[in-house]
Design brief:
The complex is a heterodimer of chains A (about 300) and B (about 230). Chain A contains three helices and 18 strands. In chain A, the strands form four sheets. In chain A, strands 10, 13, 14, 17 and 18 form a five-stranded mixed β-sheet that branches. With about 300 residues, chain A is an alpha+beta fold. Chain A has helices at about 5-35, 265-290, 300-305, and strands at about 40-50, 55-60, 70-75, 80, 85, 90-95, 110-115, 120-125, 130-140, 145-155, 160-165, 170-175, 180, 185-190, 190-200, 205-210, 215-225, 230-235. In chain B, a hairpin with a 4-residue loop joins β2 and β3. The longest helix of chain B is centred in the first third of the chain and has 38 residues, at about 5-45. The chains are: A alpha+beta (about 300), B alpha+beta (about 230). At the A-B interface, α1, β1, β3, β4 and β5 of A face α1, β1, β5, β7 and α2 of B. β4 (about 80) of chain A pairs antiparallel with β1 of chain B.
Chain lengths: ~300, ~230
Protein backbone atom coordinates (compact mmCIF):
# COMPACT_ATOMS: atom_id res chain seq x y z
CA UNK A 1 0.00 0.00 0.00
CA UNK A 2 2.80 2.36 0.80
CA UNK A 3 4.02 1.92 -2.69
CA UNK A 4 1.29 4.09 -4.13
CA UNK A 5 1.35 6.56 -1.26
CA UNK A 6 4.36 8.59 -2.19
CA UNK A 7 3.57 9.07 -5.88
CA UNK A 8 0.35 10.81 -4.85
CA UNK A 9 2.21 13.38 -2.81
CA UNK A 10 4.64 13.83 -5.58
CA UNK A 11 1.94 14.08 -8.16
CA UNK A 12 0.12 16.73 -6.19
CA UNK A 13 3.28 18.72 -5.85
CA UNK A 14 4.05 18.34 -9.53
CA UNK A 15 0.54 19.42 -10.48
CA UNK A 16 0.80 22.53 -8.30
CA UNK A 17 4.23 23.37 -9.65
CA UNK A 18 3.00 22.80 -13.18
CA UNK A 19 -0.02 24.98 -12.57
CA UNK A 20 2.20 27.81 -11.35
CA UNK A 21 4.41 27.45 -14.41
CA UNK A 22 1.36 27.40 -16.66
CA UNK A 23 -0.13 30.50 -15.08
CA UNK A 24 3.19 32.30 -15.33
CA UNK A 25 3.52 31.30 -18.99
CA UNK A 26 0.05 32.39 -20.00
CA UNK A 27 0.35 35.63 -18.01
CA UNK A 28 3.55 36.39 -19.88
CA UNK A 29 1.90 35.58 -23.21
CA UNK A 30 -1.20 37.64 -22.43
CA UNK A 31 0.81 40.60 -21.17
CA UNK A 32 3.17 40.46 -24.10
CA UNK A 33 0.33 40.31 -26.59
CA UNK A 34 -1.68 43.10 -25.03
CA UNK A 35 1.15 45.44 -24.15
CA UNK A 36 1.64 46.59 -27.72
CA UNK A 37 -2.01 47.00 -28.58
CA UNK A 38 -4.24 50.01 -28.56
CA UNK A 39 -7.84 50.28 -29.63
CA UNK A 40 -7.98 52.86 -32.40
CA UNK A 41 -11.29 54.69 -32.51
CA UNK A 42 -13.12 57.19 -34.67
CA UNK A 43 -16.36 59.03 -34.01
CA UNK A 44 -19.81 58.70 -35.52
CA UNK A 45 -23.00 60.55 -34.73
CA UNK A 46 -26.41 59.94 -36.23
CA UNK A 47 -29.05 62.45 -37.19
CA UNK A 48 -32.56 62.76 -38.60
CA UNK A 49 -32.57 65.89 -40.76
CA UNK A 50 -35.46 65.20 -43.15
CA UNK A 51 -38.28 67.66 -42.30
CA UNK A 52 -41.28 65.68 -43.53
CA UNK A 53 -40.04 62.19 -42.69
CA UNK A 54 -41.80 60.59 -39.69
CA UNK A 55 -39.89 59.23 -36.70
CA UNK A 56 -37.46 56.47 -37.52
CA UNK A 57 -35.56 53.68 -35.78
CA UNK A 58 -31.84 53.94 -36.51
CA UNK A 59 -29.66 50.82 -36.61
CA UNK A 60 -25.88 50.87 -36.35
CA UNK A 61 -24.04 47.65 -37.21
CA UNK A 62 -20.35 46.86 -37.36
CA UNK A 63 -19.56 44.74 -40.43
CA UNK A 64 -16.75 43.11 -38.42
CA UNK A 65 -18.91 42.78 -35.27
CA UNK A 66 -16.55 45.11 -33.41
CA UNK A 67 -19.51 46.24 -31.32
CA UNK A 68 -22.99 44.93 -30.68
CA UNK A 69 -25.75 46.27 -32.91
CA UNK A 70 -27.06 49.56 -31.59
CA UNK A 71 -30.68 50.56 -32.11
CA UNK A 72 -32.06 54.04 -31.46
CA UNK A 73 -35.83 54.01 -31.54
CA UNK A 74 -38.28 56.78 -32.24
CA UNK A 75 -35.79 59.31 -33.56
CA UNK A 76 -37.56 62.41 -34.84
CA UNK A 77 -36.69 65.24 -37.20
CA UNK A 78 -33.94 67.50 -35.86
CA UNK A 79 -32.55 64.98 -33.39
CA UNK A 80 -28.78 64.49 -33.43
CA UNK A 81 -26.94 61.93 -31.32
CA UNK A 82 -23.75 62.51 -29.40
CA UNK A 83 -20.61 61.29 -31.10
CA UNK A 84 -20.09 57.59 -30.43
CA UNK A 85 -16.47 56.47 -30.12
CA UNK A 86 -16.27 53.36 -32.31
CA UNK A 87 -13.45 50.93 -33.07
CA UNK A 88 -12.15 51.76 -36.55
CA UNK A 89 -13.76 49.78 -39.37
CA UNK A 90 -16.85 49.76 -41.51
CA UNK A 91 -20.35 50.27 -40.15
CA UNK A 92 -23.80 50.05 -41.71
CA UNK A 93 -26.37 52.68 -40.77
CA UNK A 94 -30.01 51.84 -41.55
CA UNK A 95 -33.30 53.60 -40.92
CA UNK A 96 -36.70 51.96 -40.60
CA UNK A 97 -40.04 53.55 -39.93
CA UNK A 98 -40.39 53.79 -36.18
CA UNK A 99 -41.68 50.53 -34.77
CA UNK A 100 -41.02 48.51 -37.92
CA UNK A 101 -39.95 44.90 -37.50
CA UNK A 102 -36.14 44.75 -37.48
CA UNK A 103 -36.32 41.87 -39.95
CA UNK A 104 -38.02 44.02 -42.59
CA UNK A 105 -35.86 45.75 -45.17
CA UNK A 106 -34.77 49.23 -44.05
CA UNK A 107 -36.10 52.32 -45.82
CA UNK A 108 -32.58 53.54 -46.41
CA UNK A 109 -29.13 52.25 -45.60
CA UNK A 110 -25.53 53.36 -46.09
CA UNK A 111 -22.05 52.44 -44.93
CA UNK A 112 -19.45 54.57 -43.19
CA UNK A 113 -15.80 53.60 -42.87
CA UNK A 114 -14.41 54.96 -39.63
CA UNK A 115 -10.74 55.96 -39.65
CA UNK A 116 -8.56 56.66 -36.61
CA UNK A 117 -9.45 59.91 -34.89
CA UNK A 118 -11.82 61.00 -37.68
CA UNK A 119 -15.42 62.05 -37.13
CA UNK A 120 -18.55 61.55 -39.21
CA UNK A 121 -22.16 62.64 -39.08
CA UNK A 122 -24.48 60.15 -40.76
CA UNK A 123 -27.78 61.88 -41.41
CA UNK A 124 -31.07 61.16 -43.11
CA UNK A 125 -31.37 64.22 -45.37
CA UNK A 126 -33.64 65.67 -48.05
CA UNK A 127 -37.39 65.49 -48.23
CA UNK A 128 -39.19 62.24 -47.48
CA UNK A 129 -39.79 61.75 -51.19
CA UNK A 130 -36.10 61.79 -51.93
CA UNK A 131 -34.73 60.72 -48.53
CA UNK A 132 -31.07 59.78 -48.49
CA UNK A 133 -28.49 58.86 -45.87
CA UNK A 134 -25.53 61.16 -46.15
CA UNK A 135 -22.09 60.63 -44.59
CA UNK A 136 -20.64 64.03 -43.69
CA UNK A 137 -16.91 64.19 -42.90
CA UNK A 138 -16.55 66.38 -39.84
CA UNK A 139 -13.18 68.13 -39.67
CA UNK A 140 -12.75 68.50 -35.93
CA UNK A 141 -9.34 70.18 -36.05
CA UNK A 142 -9.06 72.19 -32.83
CA UNK A 143 -8.51 75.90 -33.55
CA UNK A 144 -5.44 77.57 -32.11
CA UNK A 145 -5.41 80.54 -29.76
CA UNK A 146 -8.66 82.14 -28.65
CA UNK A 147 -10.65 80.88 -31.59
CA UNK A 148 -13.55 78.58 -32.24
CA UNK A 149 -14.65 76.92 -35.48
CA UNK A 150 -18.24 76.88 -36.64
CA UNK A 151 -20.17 75.62 -39.67
CA UNK A 152 -23.76 75.46 -40.89
CA UNK A 153 -25.83 72.29 -41.30
CA UNK A 154 -28.84 73.36 -43.37
CA UNK A 155 -31.89 71.13 -42.88
CA UNK A 156 -34.71 73.63 -43.41
CA UNK A 157 -36.83 73.12 -46.50
CA UNK A 158 -39.00 76.15 -45.72
CA UNK A 159 -36.03 78.37 -46.45
CA UNK A 160 -34.24 76.56 -49.24
CA UNK A 161 -31.31 79.00 -49.15
CA UNK A 162 -30.07 80.75 -46.00
CA UNK A 163 -27.48 83.34 -44.97
CA UNK A 164 -25.70 83.38 -41.62
CA UNK A 165 -23.77 86.35 -40.27
CA UNK A 166 -22.20 87.41 -37.00
CA UNK A 167 -23.59 90.28 -34.97
CA UNK A 168 -20.65 92.42 -36.09
CA UNK A 169 -21.75 92.00 -39.69
CA UNK A 170 -19.16 89.40 -40.70
CA UNK A 171 -20.52 86.69 -42.95
CA UNK A 172 -20.32 83.08 -41.79
CA UNK A 173 -21.91 81.67 -44.96
CA UNK A 174 -24.28 82.81 -47.72
CA UNK A 175 -26.74 80.90 -49.90
CA UNK A 176 -26.47 77.65 -47.97
CA UNK A 177 -28.82 75.19 -49.71
CA UNK A 178 -31.23 72.77 -48.04
CA UNK A 179 -29.60 69.40 -47.30
CA UNK A 180 -26.06 70.73 -47.49
CA UNK A 181 -23.31 71.45 -44.97
CA UNK A 182 -20.71 74.23 -45.15
CA UNK A 183 -17.04 73.86 -44.25
CA UNK A 184 -15.93 75.18 -40.86
CA UNK A 185 -15.01 78.81 -40.41
CA UNK A 186 -12.74 80.20 -37.70
CA UNK A 187 -14.40 82.73 -35.40
CA UNK A 188 -12.99 84.65 -32.43
CA UNK A 189 -14.17 82.92 -29.28
CA UNK A 190 -16.71 84.69 -27.13
CA UNK A 191 -20.40 85.56 -26.94
CA UNK A 192 -22.04 86.21 -30.28
CA UNK A 193 -25.44 86.54 -31.83
CA UNK A 194 -25.65 84.59 -35.06
CA UNK A 195 -28.20 86.01 -37.47
CA UNK A 196 -29.83 83.32 -39.58
CA UNK A 197 -32.17 84.42 -42.39
CA UNK A 198 -33.58 83.13 -45.66
CA UNK A 199 -31.47 84.36 -48.59
CA UNK A 200 -34.67 85.21 -50.48
CA UNK A 201 -35.70 87.56 -47.70
CA UNK A 202 -37.75 87.12 -44.59
CA UNK A 203 -37.40 87.57 -40.89
CA UNK A 204 -34.00 87.07 -39.28
CA UNK A 205 -33.72 84.43 -36.56
CA UNK A 206 -31.14 85.44 -33.93
CA UNK A 207 -29.18 82.70 -32.14
CA UNK A 208 -27.24 83.72 -29.04
CA UNK A 209 -24.15 81.55 -28.61
CA UNK A 210 -21.12 81.37 -26.38
CA UNK A 211 -18.28 80.02 -28.51
CA UNK A 212 -15.42 78.68 -26.38
CA UNK A 213 -11.86 78.72 -27.57
CA UNK A 214 -10.46 75.31 -28.53
CA UNK A 215 -13.97 74.23 -29.54
CA UNK A 216 -15.78 73.24 -32.71
CA UNK A 217 -19.50 73.79 -33.37
CA UNK A 218 -22.24 73.20 -35.93
CA UNK A 219 -25.21 75.53 -36.31
CA UNK A 220 -28.15 73.28 -37.12
CA UNK A 221 -30.87 75.08 -39.12
CA UNK A 222 -34.29 73.38 -39.08
CA UNK A 223 -37.85 74.02 -40.13
CA UNK A 224 -39.80 75.77 -37.40
CA UNK A 225 -43.54 76.10 -37.06
CA UNK A 226 -43.78 79.05 -39.40
CA UNK A 227 -40.20 79.81 -40.32
CA UNK A 228 -36.82 78.35 -39.56
CA UNK A 229 -35.12 77.69 -36.22
CA UNK A 230 -31.45 77.41 -35.38
CA UNK A 231 -29.58 75.59 -32.65
CA UNK A 232 -25.94 75.12 -31.72
CA UNK A 233 -24.35 71.64 -31.62
CA UNK A 234 -21.01 71.06 -29.91
CA UNK A 235 -18.77 69.02 -32.20
CA UNK A 236 -15.66 69.01 -30.00
CA UNK A 237 -14.94 70.76 -26.75
CA UNK A 238 -13.83 70.59 -23.16
CA UNK A 239 -14.73 72.41 -19.98
CA UNK A 240 -12.30 74.97 -18.59
CA UNK A 241 -8.67 74.88 -19.53
CA UNK A 242 -6.00 72.20 -19.35
CA UNK A 243 -3.90 72.03 -16.18
CA UNK A 244 -0.22 72.66 -16.66
CA UNK A 245 1.57 69.49 -17.59
CA UNK A 246 2.57 66.62 -15.35
CA UNK A 247 1.43 65.64 -11.86
CA UNK A 248 3.39 64.20 -8.93
CA UNK A 249 1.46 61.12 -7.91
CA UNK A 250 3.94 58.91 -6.11
CA UNK A 251 6.16 58.90 -3.04
CA UNK A 252 8.43 56.10 -4.26
CA UNK A 253 7.62 53.49 -1.66
CA UNK A 254 7.41 50.76 -4.27
CA UNK A 255 10.23 51.96 -6.52
CA UNK A 256 13.00 49.36 -6.92
CA UNK A 257 16.06 50.27 -4.88
CA UNK A 258 14.36 53.15 -3.13
CA UNK A 259 15.26 53.14 0.57
CA UNK A 260 12.27 55.20 1.47
CA UNK A 261 10.17 52.18 2.17
CA UNK A 262 9.92 48.41 2.37
CA UNK A 263 10.39 45.93 -0.41
CA UNK A 264 8.40 46.45 -3.58
CA UNK A 265 5.29 44.32 -3.80
CA UNK A 266 6.45 42.09 -6.70
CA UNK A 267 9.50 41.13 -4.65
CA UNK A 268 7.32 40.41 -1.63
CA UNK A 269 5.06 38.26 -3.79
CA UNK A 270 8.03 36.32 -5.17
CA UNK A 271 9.40 35.76 -1.67
CA UNK A 272 6.00 34.56 -0.46
CA UNK A 273 5.64 32.14 -3.36
CA UNK A 274 9.16 30.83 -2.80
CA UNK A 275 8.42 30.36 0.92
CA UNK A 276 5.20 28.48 0.21
CA UNK A 277 6.95 26.21 -2.28
CA UNK A 278 9.80 25.57 0.15
CA UNK A 279 7.42 24.62 2.94
CA UNK A 280 5.45 22.40 0.57
CA UNK A 281 8.63 20.65 -0.55
CA UNK A 282 9.90 20.05 2.98
CA UNK A 283 6.51 18.78 4.08
CA UNK A 284 6.31 16.41 1.15
CA UNK A 285 9.80 15.07 1.82
CA UNK A 286 9.02 14.57 5.49
CA UNK A 287 5.79 12.79 4.77
CA UNK A 288 7.48 10.64 2.18
CA UNK A 289 10.33 9.70 4.46
CA UNK A 290 7.97 8.86 7.26
CA UNK A 291 5.93 6.71 4.91
CA UNK A 292 8.84 4.95 3.33
CA UNK A 293 11.50 4.77 6.05
CA UNK A 294 10.18 5.43 9.52
CA UNK A 295 13.40 4.11 11.04
CA UNK A 296 15.38 6.89 9.59
CA UNK A 297 13.91 9.10 12.30
CA UNK A 298 14.99 6.84 15.08
CA UNK A 299 18.33 7.16 16.82
CA UNK A 300 20.90 5.12 14.99
CA UNK A 301 21.65 2.92 17.94
CA UNK A 302 18.02 2.01 18.38
CA UNK A 303 17.57 1.11 14.76
CA UNK A 304 20.65 -1.05 14.83
CA UNK A 305 19.05 -3.19 17.53
CA UNK A 306 15.94 -3.76 15.55
CA UNK A 307 15.15 -6.42 13.10
CA UNK A 308 16.37 -5.84 9.56
CA UNK A 309 14.49 -2.96 7.99
CA UNK A 310 11.88 -3.95 5.55
CA UNK A 311 12.84 -3.09 2.05
CA UNK A 312 10.06 -2.15 -0.28
CA UNK B 1 -11.91 -16.53 -12.40
CA UNK B 2 -8.52 -14.94 -12.41
CA UNK B 3 -5.63 -16.72 -10.81
CA UNK B 4 -4.30 -15.19 -7.61
CA UNK B 5 -1.93 -12.42 -8.59
CA UNK B 6 1.70 -12.60 -7.86
CA UNK B 7 2.26 -9.73 -5.40
CA UNK B 8 5.49 -8.81 -7.19
CA UNK B 9 3.68 -8.34 -10.49
CA UNK B 10 1.00 -6.28 -8.81
CA UNK B 11 3.55 -4.05 -7.18
CA UNK B 12 5.25 -3.60 -10.52
CA UNK B 13 1.98 -2.50 -12.10
CA UNK B 14 1.36 -0.01 -9.37
CA UNK B 15 4.80 1.43 -9.86
CA UNK B 16 4.19 1.68 -13.58
CA UNK B 17 0.93 3.55 -12.93
CA UNK B 18 2.72 5.84 -10.54
CA UNK B 19 5.34 6.57 -13.16
CA UNK B 20 2.68 7.45 -15.72
CA UNK B 21 1.05 9.74 -13.19
CA UNK B 22 4.40 11.34 -12.48
CA UNK B 23 5.03 11.93 -16.16
CA UNK B 24 1.57 13.35 -16.72
CA UNK B 25 1.48 15.46 -13.59
CA UNK B 26 3.54 18.41 -14.79
CA UNK B 27 1.82 18.96 -18.15
CA UNK B 28 -1.52 18.42 -16.45
CA UNK B 29 -0.61 21.12 -13.98
CA UNK B 30 0.52 23.48 -16.73
CA UNK B 31 -2.77 22.97 -18.54
CA UNK B 32 -4.67 23.52 -15.31
CA UNK B 33 -2.84 26.78 -14.70
CA UNK B 34 -3.53 28.01 -18.21
CA UNK B 35 -7.17 27.00 -17.90
CA UNK B 36 -7.54 28.80 -14.56
CA UNK B 37 -6.15 32.00 -16.04
CA UNK B 38 -8.12 31.82 -19.25
CA UNK B 39 -11.30 31.14 -17.32
CA UNK B 40 -10.67 33.99 -14.92
CA UNK B 41 -9.95 36.35 -17.82
CA UNK B 42 -13.10 35.25 -19.58
CA UNK B 43 -15.09 35.64 -16.39
CA UNK B 44 -13.76 39.15 -15.95
CA UNK B 45 -15.41 39.87 -19.29
CA UNK B 46 -13.51 43.08 -19.83
CA UNK B 47 -11.84 42.40 -23.13
CA UNK B 48 -12.86 44.54 -26.06
CA UNK B 49 -15.77 46.85 -26.67
CA UNK B 50 -19.05 45.43 -25.42
CA UNK B 51 -20.64 42.92 -27.73
CA UNK B 52 -23.90 41.08 -27.56
CA UNK B 53 -27.45 41.52 -28.62
CA UNK B 54 -28.58 44.15 -26.13
CA UNK B 55 -30.37 47.11 -27.61
CA UNK B 56 -28.54 50.37 -27.33
CA UNK B 57 -29.16 53.15 -24.92
CA UNK B 58 -27.38 55.93 -26.73
CA UNK B 59 -27.54 59.57 -25.92
CA UNK B 60 -29.33 61.80 -28.38
CA UNK B 61 -29.59 65.50 -28.08
CA UNK B 62 -32.75 67.29 -29.08
CA UNK B 63 -32.36 70.40 -31.23
CA UNK B 64 -32.77 72.57 -28.17
CA UNK B 65 -29.67 70.98 -26.72
CA UNK B 66 -31.63 69.43 -23.89
CA UNK B 67 -32.09 65.68 -23.76
CA UNK B 68 -35.41 64.51 -25.12
CA UNK B 69 -37.54 62.71 -22.64
CA UNK B 70 -38.28 59.46 -24.37
CA UNK B 71 -40.85 56.91 -23.39
CA UNK B 72 -40.00 53.33 -22.51
CA UNK B 73 -37.65 51.85 -25.05
CA UNK B 74 -36.37 55.25 -26.12
CA UNK B 75 -32.66 55.67 -25.83
CA UNK B 76 -32.52 59.11 -24.26
CA UNK B 77 -30.98 58.87 -20.80
CA UNK B 78 -30.89 62.11 -18.85
CA UNK B 79 -27.66 64.04 -19.00
CA UNK B 80 -25.38 63.49 -16.02
CA UNK B 81 -25.09 66.32 -13.54
CA UNK B 82 -23.31 67.08 -10.29
CA UNK B 83 -19.80 66.23 -9.28
CA UNK B 84 -18.29 62.79 -9.79
CA UNK B 85 -17.88 60.90 -6.53
CA UNK B 86 -16.41 57.48 -7.18
CA UNK B 87 -14.31 55.56 -9.70
CA UNK B 88 -14.38 51.79 -10.26
CA UNK B 89 -11.86 49.89 -12.39
CA UNK B 90 -12.77 46.22 -11.95
CA UNK B 91 -9.87 44.74 -13.93
CA UNK B 92 -7.27 46.18 -11.53
CA UNK B 93 -9.42 46.08 -8.42
CA UNK B 94 -9.81 49.85 -8.00
CA UNK B 95 -12.86 51.26 -6.23
CA UNK B 96 -12.05 54.66 -4.84
CA UNK B 97 -13.64 57.91 -3.77
CA UNK B 98 -12.90 60.98 -5.87
CA UNK B 99 -11.51 64.14 -4.34
CA UNK B 100 -11.81 67.46 -6.11
CA UNK B 101 -8.42 68.45 -7.47
CA UNK B 102 -7.24 71.99 -8.08
CA UNK B 103 -4.18 73.55 -9.63
CA UNK B 104 -1.45 75.37 -7.74
CA UNK B 105 -0.37 78.96 -8.38
CA UNK B 106 1.77 77.85 -11.32
CA UNK B 107 -1.13 75.98 -12.91
CA UNK B 108 0.19 72.52 -12.06
CA UNK B 109 -2.33 69.91 -11.01
CA UNK B 110 -2.26 69.20 -7.25
CA UNK B 111 -2.25 65.47 -6.52
CA UNK B 112 -4.85 63.86 -4.23
CA UNK B 113 -4.16 64.34 -0.51
CA UNK B 114 -4.86 60.68 0.29
CA UNK B 115 -3.12 57.65 -1.14
CA UNK B 116 -6.23 55.49 -1.22
CA UNK B 117 -8.38 58.04 -3.04
CA UNK B 118 -8.28 59.32 -6.60
CA UNK B 119 -9.11 62.86 -7.64
CA UNK B 120 -11.00 64.61 -10.41
CA UNK B 121 -9.65 67.90 -11.77
CA UNK B 122 -12.64 70.09 -10.91
CA UNK B 123 -11.41 72.98 -13.07
CA UNK B 124 -11.93 70.88 -16.19
CA UNK B 125 -14.43 68.62 -17.90
CA UNK B 126 -16.72 66.57 -15.64
CA UNK B 127 -16.83 62.85 -16.56
CA UNK B 128 -19.72 62.32 -18.95
CA UNK B 129 -19.51 65.81 -20.48
CA UNK B 130 -17.87 66.33 -23.85
CA UNK B 131 -14.14 66.62 -23.33
CA UNK B 132 -11.30 64.86 -21.50
CA UNK B 133 -12.12 64.46 -17.80
CA UNK B 134 -8.93 64.18 -15.77
CA UNK B 135 -8.73 61.67 -12.91
CA UNK B 136 -5.41 61.29 -11.08
CA UNK B 137 -4.24 58.97 -8.31
CA UNK B 138 -1.01 58.07 -6.55
CA UNK B 139 0.98 55.02 -7.60
CA UNK B 140 2.47 54.59 -4.12
CA UNK B 141 3.05 56.14 -0.74
CA UNK B 142 6.40 56.14 1.09
CA UNK B 143 5.84 52.52 2.00
CA UNK B 144 3.14 50.94 -0.02
CA UNK B 145 1.18 50.68 -3.25
CA UNK B 146 -1.49 53.36 -3.60
CA UNK B 147 -4.81 53.57 -5.45
CA UNK B 148 -3.39 53.64 -9.03
CA UNK B 149 -0.49 51.25 -8.37
CA UNK B 150 -1.65 48.96 -11.18
CA UNK B 151 -2.92 51.62 -13.58
CA UNK B 152 -0.35 50.72 -16.22
CA UNK B 153 -1.81 47.22 -16.38
CA UNK B 154 -5.01 48.51 -17.97
CA UNK B 155 -5.49 47.25 -21.49
CA UNK B 156 -7.71 48.33 -24.39
CA UNK B 157 -11.26 47.20 -23.74
CA UNK B 158 -11.01 47.39 -19.94
CA UNK B 159 -13.98 49.00 -18.22
CA UNK B 160 -13.84 52.16 -16.10
CA UNK B 161 -16.95 53.33 -14.26
CA UNK B 162 -17.50 56.75 -12.73
CA UNK B 163 -20.37 57.55 -10.35
CA UNK B 164 -21.87 60.97 -10.95
CA UNK B 165 -25.21 62.36 -9.85
CA UNK B 166 -26.65 58.92 -9.15
CA UNK B 167 -25.64 57.61 -12.55
CA UNK B 168 -22.90 55.13 -13.35
CA UNK B 169 -21.04 56.31 -16.44
CA UNK B 170 -19.19 53.66 -18.41
CA UNK B 171 -15.92 54.17 -20.24
CA UNK B 172 -13.73 51.84 -22.29
CA UNK B 173 -9.93 51.98 -22.20
CA UNK B 174 -8.41 52.57 -25.65
CA UNK B 175 -4.69 52.89 -24.84
CA UNK B 176 -2.10 53.96 -22.30
CA UNK B 177 1.12 55.92 -22.62
CA UNK B 178 4.23 56.83 -20.60
CA UNK B 179 5.33 60.44 -20.90
CA UNK B 180 8.47 61.96 -19.32
CA UNK B 181 7.29 64.64 -16.91
CA UNK B 182 9.97 66.91 -18.32
CA UNK B 183 8.34 66.68 -21.74
CA UNK B 184 4.66 66.14 -20.93
CA UNK B 185 2.48 66.73 -24.03
CA UNK B 186 -0.15 68.78 -22.21
CA UNK B 187 -1.92 70.11 -25.26
CA UNK B 188 -2.50 66.70 -26.84
CA UNK B 189 -3.34 64.79 -23.62
CA UNK B 190 -5.93 67.37 -22.58
CA UNK B 191 -7.10 68.36 -26.07
CA UNK B 192 -10.84 68.86 -26.65
CA UNK B 193 -12.67 65.74 -27.83
CA UNK B 194 -15.92 65.03 -29.71
CA UNK B 195 -17.21 62.75 -26.95
CA UNK B 196 -17.00 62.24 -23.18
CA UNK B 197 -13.56 60.79 -22.45
CA UNK B 198 -11.29 60.07 -19.47
CA UNK B 199 -7.61 60.61 -18.83
CA UNK B 200 -6.49 58.47 -15.87
CA UNK B 201 -3.11 59.61 -14.63
CA UNK B 202 -0.46 58.35 -12.22
CA UNK B 203 3.31 58.19 -11.98
CA UNK B 204 5.69 55.74 -13.62
CA UNK B 205 9.22 55.10 -14.78
CA UNK B 206 12.30 55.55 -12.58
CA UNK B 207 12.07 57.13 -9.14
CA UNK B 208 14.35 60.14 -8.83
CA UNK B 209 15.45 59.95 -5.19
CA UNK B 210 16.93 63.44 -5.19
CA UNK B 211 13.72 64.97 -6.54
CA UNK B 212 11.58 62.50 -4.55
CA UNK B 213 9.52 62.07 -7.68
CA UNK B 214 8.96 59.59 -10.47
CA UNK B 215 10.28 60.76 -13.83
CA UNK B 216 7.27 59.74 -15.92
CA UNK B 217 3.52 60.07 -15.93
CA UNK B 218 1.36 57.16 -17.04
CA UNK B 219 -1.77 58.30 -18.90
CA UNK B 220 -4.61 55.88 -19.66
CA UNK B 221 -7.06 57.02 -22.35
CA UNK B 222 -10.70 55.94 -22.20
CA UNK B 223 -13.77 56.83 -24.27
CA UNK B 224 -17.45 56.76 -23.40
CA UNK B 225 -18.59 53.17 -23.99
CA UNK B 226 -20.74 53.28 -27.14
Amino acid sequence: MRVNQWPRHRMLRAVIAGALVGMAMSTAVATGAAAASSQKVGYVRLAHLSPDTPDVDVYLDSTSHAIAEKVFTGVGYGVVSQYLALPIGTYTVSMRVSGADPSTPPVITTTVTVATGRAYTVAGVGTHAELGLKVINDDLTIPKGSHARVRIVQASVKAKLIDVSLSNGDTVANNVAFATTTSYRTVTAGSWTLDVKPSAGGSTVPLKVNLHSDSVYSVLVLDGKSSLTATLLTDASRTGSAPGGPIDTGAGGTAPGNNGGGLPVPVLVLISVAAVLAVATVTTVVVRRRATAPDAWMPRRASADRAPTRVL
Amino acid sequence: MTAPRDPLIRRHRIRANARIRKVLAVPLGVLTGVAILVASMAAAGTAGFPRGAAAASGTWLAPSGTPRSGGPGHGFPRAPSGTPTWVHIPSIGVSAALQLLTTDSSGQLNPPTKFDEAGWYAGGTPPGDIGPAIIAGHIDSKCCPAVFYRLDRLRPGDLVEVERGGQTLRFTVTRSAHYPKADFPTSSVYAPTPDPELRLITCGGEFDKAAKSYVDNVVVYAVATP
